[in-house]
Amino acid sequence: MYQGSEFTFLALNKSLEIKEILEEVAMQVDAHCICVDSSQELLEGTLEYKTDLIIMDMGIGLEEIKKTLKTMFLDIQCKEIPIFMLCDAQDIEALCIEFKDYPVISIVTHKNWKYQLNSLIGLLKRKNTNEEILNESLQESESQNKVDPLTGALNRFGAEHKFQDLVADFEERNKPFSLIMFDIDFFKKINDEYGHDVGDEILVSICSLVQHDIRKDDALIRFGGEEFIVFLSNASLEMANMKAQGFRTAMEAKGHGFDKLKVTASFGVLEYKESESLDVLFSKVDKLLYEAKEKGRNRVVSA
After folding, report:
1. Hey, which of 26, 55, 181, 192 has its CA 20 to 30 A from 148?
2. Is 226 tagged catalytic?
């Protein structure tokens, strides 16, 4: 399927003269022009190409045009494509009535129509560009709202979305998932003795270590200041426990850029059970993390 970003229009007509004018307009407005001479080819074109505009020449015949429009309207995407129609001057009023229920945005005569088409494409291109910019801005804003700016991990808002996806996989495909909650040991002492800048560097270093060791369907969440959660998709408790042990030993072994500074973490591990809410899971795994700290830190406790 053609997926280019340029403006694309399909033209249904059998006139060589009109085809040449359409190709000329396409060059002028930097658009992609595809001319077809049958309704079947037009319908196939709407499936193959990302179509921004359809042009129909009434020289094809009124019944053929009506049949094509009815077929197009069975497709939800086709309903949204604007239509530019060429006709003889005496037919305009009747066609406006005939096609009032279809997305025909312009019916023009064969005289000087290329200038009107040129202006229309320019208008539609600006509209498409503005919508793309708005959609990109909204997507970027939504993404930023889900991500912790320091570490790049998801925040609690992002965790909610990820949790819903994992529960859906659990219910629909019977795919288990588990949680790992970990907390950097004596992090307040690190901040007090070395400063918050060093503390931030350690947070970033640890998150980088974890991110490089999880799969694309897993997720790292910054739950609090130095407290994090890892969602492991399609993972049993046993698998999650092994992963947590791997994180623990890697964090202890890594220098994090400071030779004299030893950084360790404590872990709680839990597998999701049917119908549990996110708050219940967080509460349960937090208790396991607390148990790991009570037992001396730098260890994994699971249940």
Report:
1. 192
2. yes
Q: Evaluate whether residue 64 is within a structural domain.
A: yes
DSSP state of 231: E
pLDDT in tens, 66-103: 888 888 877 766 777 888 888 886 777 778 778 877 77
Show the tokens assigned to 267: 């872990």
pLDDT tens, residue by residue, 22-50: 998 888 888 889 999 888 888 888 888 88
Cβ atoms of 90 and 58 closer than 8 Å: no
Same domain? For 200 and 119 the reply is no
Query: For residue 48, is it within any domain?
Result: yes
Asked if 13 and 37 count as a contact pair (C-beta separation under 8 A), the reply is yes
pTM comes to 0.55
- Looking at the fold, whether 164 and 134 belong to one and the same domain comes out as no
Closest CA to 302 of 266, 275, 249, 277: 266
Do the Cβ atoms of 51 and 81 come closer than 8 Å? yes
Which of 70, 19, 25 is CA-nearest to residue 43?
A: 70
Residues 177 and 119 in one domain: no
- CA distance between the termini of the chain: 50
Whether 165 and 298 map to the same domain: the answer is: yes
Catalytic pick from 41, 142, 226, 252? 226
Q: What phi and psi values does residue 5 have, to the nearest 5 degrees?
A: -85, -10
Range of the domain at 13: 8-140
